[in-house]
Amino acid sequence: MASPSDAQPITRVPRTGLPAQAVVVGDPGRAETVAALLADAKEVSYHREYRTFTGDWHGTPVVVSSHGVGAPGALLLFQELAAAGVRTFLRLGTAGAIRPGVRDGDLVIADAAVRDDGVSQQLIPAEYPAFAAPEAVLALQRAARAMDAPHHRGVVWTRAAFQPGFLPLPAAVYERAGVAAIEMELSALYVFASTHGLTAGGALVVDGANADELVDEEALLSTGGYDPHREVVAAGVDRGARIALDALRLLVARPT
């Protein structure tokens, strides 16, 4: 663990010396699970929702770090990891399906994101797009194909509120527009990365359906409509972790 004087102020990650490649996840427990796949894994910090490991994936040094739920807190992690040396970010998260044909456990590789994250609008005008680095998208797609993993590409909707409130939502509009899934942090990562000369991509494991006609009525009755703790989701997350790590390795190995 870094001493207080050598740690970043919010996340407590080391100020310097981290590998240039990172997988970022929401859940601190998921960070530990992904780090367990690495050789020479070492926990370097754990403060609030921010838990960070370093290790090696088939010769590629990697950071694995958690950012919690929601874009404002996640952005703090992205900023402090970048200050410590990270230059490539791949977010491994979960998402609700919107597009028909996207099923539980499938991976959604996000080309871009709708900026409804609640924080990036305070950094740069809303007209600025949230887009992935093309090389990150292609690396994730190549890694998914190599594992024969069910996956989809498309735009995702990053929304700040998890539960619906009193305001009408544009979900039907986004469904008609072909948006693939909904999650909570990715657009903030894409805006931060593209405005700071960094590389970012996202791979999201589907853990439920948000479009009305996709909702499993049996699951709705038995779980209240949302149960991310099922085996199909756990298997998807395990595949997604290996895909994200392989994609980082491919990005490091690509010709410049």
Give a description of the structure.
The protein is α/β, with parallel strands linked by helices. A 5-stranded mixed barrel has the order 5-9-8-6-10. Helix 2 (71-83) packs parallel to helix 5 and helix 3 crosses helix 7 (231-253). The radius of gyration is 17 Å and the shape is globular. The chain has helices at 28-35, 71-83, 134-146, 171-176, 186-195, 217-223, 231-253; strands at 21-25, 39-47, 50-57, 60-66, 88-97, 107-116, 130-131, 151-159, 181-183, 199-209. The longest helix has 23 residues, at 231-253.
Order of helices and strands: EHEEEHEEEHEHEHEHH
> What is the residue-averaged pLDDT?
92
- Give unreliable regions as ranges: 212-223
Helicity, in percent?
Answer: 25-40%
User: Which of globular, elongated, flat, extended, rod-shaped describes the shape?
Assistant: globular
Radius of gyration: 17 Å
The end-to-end distance, rounded to whole angstroms, is: 34 Å
Order of adjacent strands in the largest pleated sheet: 5-9-8-6-10
Q: Count the strands? A: 10
* Alpha-beta content class: alpha/beta
What count of helical segments does DSSP give?
A: 7
The largest pleated sheet is described as: 5 strands, mixed, barrel
